[in-house]
Amino acid sequence: MISRMVARNGLFYPIVGFASCVAFIYMSFGDFRLNFYVGKKMDFVGRNGTQFVVDGKVFYVNGWNSYWLMDQAVDEYSRPRVRTMLQTGARMGLTVCRTWAFNDNTYHALQISPGQFDESVFQALDHVIAEANQHGIRLLLSLVNNLQAFGGKTQYVKWAWEEGIGLSSSNDSFFYDPSIRQYYKNYVKAVLTRKNTVTGIEYRDDPTIFGWELINEPRCMTDPAGDTLQDWLEEMSTFVRSIDKKHLLTVGLEGFYGPKSPKSSTVNPADWAALYGSDFVRNSNLPNIDFASAHIYPDHWFHEIEFEESVKFVSKWVRSHIDDGNRELKKPVMFTEFGYSNQNPNFHPSQRDQFFKIIFDEIYASARKNGAGAGSFVWQFFVGGMEEYNDDFGIVPWKRSSTYQLITEHSCRLAALRGLNQLKGSLRELCLQGK
Question: Which of 131, 217, 254, 362 does the annotation list as catalytic?
Fold first, then answer.
């Protein structure tokens, strides 16, 4: 009866025809998002000696960490937080966000077992990259964690042990066990060759990605001399470069100097820092590593240190690493994490501002001299309603006007080194206010 009524009104066959056409197009071309997404044109970031370059011009990084972007992009209810964070970063003149491209066998895991992936989480990472592009933000993507958070090397070792192929239950076997090395290589290849379901671009071909970080804060304490970690870094950096020759690559170091370095006793925060199996200069000097990275957490590295002493250490630490970039590495140096804890005795937010300013000023002083100080990343930014993702360093950037202003002013003075006439979009609008 209903069919006859629709047919009599002349609607039935057009509707069926349209539906068939839509079904044919979908089956032929896949996800409609590929057809409707229009990305912003971005150029790959390259390196010229101690400086980053984009389209032949020097590029400085005022960046931030939001490690949680992929995790929050999985569910529809939390996905708007990703856009809010990236929009805010763009409005502040920030250029690169560092975030995790890993989650191994935990909640919202990307890799649920070796080489097996949750497609919905991979699509969340697709979304993060596409969204970043829309706001002119590049991404520094880290590929595994040395720490247990989000699985990390502990999970890789556990997988090998459970499958009966692991050489040892030691976490450090991540670096020397051939089976675990292959797990990591398989993972890296899957990520780098992933075709984004939103943009249609393989990750290795997408200039929205600033670069790759091999591992967050690597430590191999069973070999303080550092040969085990060095061998792993050499193999994995070569492997990444064999797949992706377009993106920059870094290690992900904390920046400690090893036992053979003369700086181990003069710059390291304490004797223990030389025993973690890493060395800033040696690890960063590999031919396939494009830039060096270091972190800054004096209130975690020292106990019972006064704020004034902490600030003096920070200045010395930053200058030392920039000097290494200039003299020994001949590569850019970035401080990819720095933070000041709100758990410090007598903490006041103004101390955090002062801490940030010390780092910003050292970066700017180096940049003015065309030096190796290429950028820095605040740890960490989040948005309202995410307290479970916060730690004692987290900031909702718009909640404290002085902090917000400090960071945006640093964005503008770095941008001004390129010439204000080179500024585009929201950065131009931000930096030309009051001019």
Answer: 217
